[in-house]
Design goal:
The protein is of the alpha/beta class and about 350 residues long. The chain folds into two domains: about 200 residues, no CATH class; about 100 residues, D-Maltodextrin-Binding Protein, domain 2. The protein is about 65% helix and about 5% strand. It has a four-stranded mixed β-sheet with strand order 2-1-3-4, with helices on both faces. Strand 1, helix 2 and strand 2 form a beta-alpha-beta unit. Helix 7 packs across helix 14, helix 10 packs antiparallel against helix 14 and helix 14 crosses helix 15. The longest helix is centred in the middle third of the chain and has 31 residues. The chain is elongated. The two termini are about 35 Å apart.
Length: about 350
């Protein structure tokens, strides 16, 4: 259940919160001979609009497709259209629009035709336009706008998956080993560090299977894979330390089931608070938790942009928690063995 619940949530988010898709404009076009107009329009559209062209044989078929709503707009080109445009003789281009108010597709094609025809005629634009993308702001609203609610929720689910494996699955394994005296036998031939390392390896193996599965189900691919993977692994190791410490402190699985929800909530709540526009002092407190720092690193790793930045600080905070929790864990296991 600890593995299936987060993956199931990823499927739900993928269905009920789809990403915004770029608009699709279908153009029915009839030309007596070959034309470069579709290529010129596609060059103007770039990656912002998905232009699709239905080539038909006659003007009547163009009109029929627009009337049947199989096309957003229609274009009818006379014979020798491209040569006439290149010669500057201003041939007639017929645009077929749907009845009633113009659709988004018809409006877009109407505005793009001038630039496309200028390009085909070899005319230079009145001015050279350059586009510069501003650096994204680091406030909560801008992060949610650039990333999207679905991706943010999937990242939160990803951290929940790590926390459930670290705080539910592994502590149960460790507690059962102590109840059955298996852990005592292991400590007779090894050290506390060997026992901890074995459990960390088990947890990372769980995550090596479940994390890629969740990302595939959610259709998400990190743009900065080293940053994304590094944050995941460091957070996983830290959370596993918390889980094993919990397993070392309790005496039975029933006690573990009673108390495990508290550290789980303490880990998950800061993760989702990162996206809220909170007072600066609250953000400072949240910044001291490994979950919130991991969320910021994962957002930057997924988008490939420094939307939060401070990567060194983020890794430093998580690593500091890892060092502290494993030091306490080794000491707790030593006292329990004694």
């Amino acid at each position: 259940m600890a593995l299936l619940l987060p993956i199931g949530l990823g499927v739900v988010y993928n269905v009920v919160m789809p990403d915004v898709q770029k608009p699709v404009v279908t153009v029915a076009i009839a030309s007596a001979d070959a034309t470069q107009l579709p290529a010129a329009l596609s060059a103007i559209a770039g990656s912002t609009v998905d232009l699709r062209f239905n080539n038909v044989a006659s003007a009547a078929e163009v009109t029929a497709q627009v009337e049947a709503k199989k096309a957003d707009v229609g274009l009818v080109l006379p014979a020798g259209f491209d040569a006439a445009v290149a010669a500057g003789s201003a041939p007639t281009l017929s645009v077929v629009q749907p009845p009633g108010s113009s659709t988004l597709g018809a409006i877009y094609i109407g505005s793009a035709l001038d630039g496309a025809l200028r390009s085909m005629a070899g005319q230079h634009a009145p001015a050279v336009i350059t586009t510069q993308t501003a650096q994204p702001a680091h406030d909560a609203a801008s992060v949610m706008t650039n990333l999207g609610a679905r991706k943010y929720m999937v990242l939160g689910t990803l951290i929940m998956l790590i926390a459930m494996i670290a705080i539910y699955v592994l502590p149960i394994i460790l507690t059962e080993e102590f109840e059955k005296k298996t852990a005592d036998a292991l400590l007779m031939v090894g050290t506390q560090s060997d026992l901890v390392a074995a459990k960390v390896a088990v947890g990372l193996t769980y995550l090596a299977v479940s994390v890629p599965l969740l990302l595939v189900v959610a259709k998400m691919a990190p743009a900065n894979l080293p940053l994304f993977a590094g944050a995941l692994v460091l957070l996983a190791v830290t959370m596993i330390g918390f889980g094993l410490l919990l397993g070392a402190l309790v005496r039975s699985v029933s006690q573990l089931n009673t108390w495990s929800s508290i550290p789980l909530l303490l880990v998950l709540m800061p993760v989702f608070f990162v996206a809220l526009d909170l007072p600066s002092w609250v953000q400072t407190v949240l910044g001291a938790t490994p979950g919130s720092q991991a969320m910021r690193l994962l957002v930057d790793g997924l988008t490939g942009q420094a939307m939060y930045g401070g990567w060194t600080l983020g890794f430093g905070v998580i690593a500091a928690w890892a060092i502290a929790v494993y030091a306490v864990l080794i000491r707790t296991l030593s006292r329990r063995e004694a």
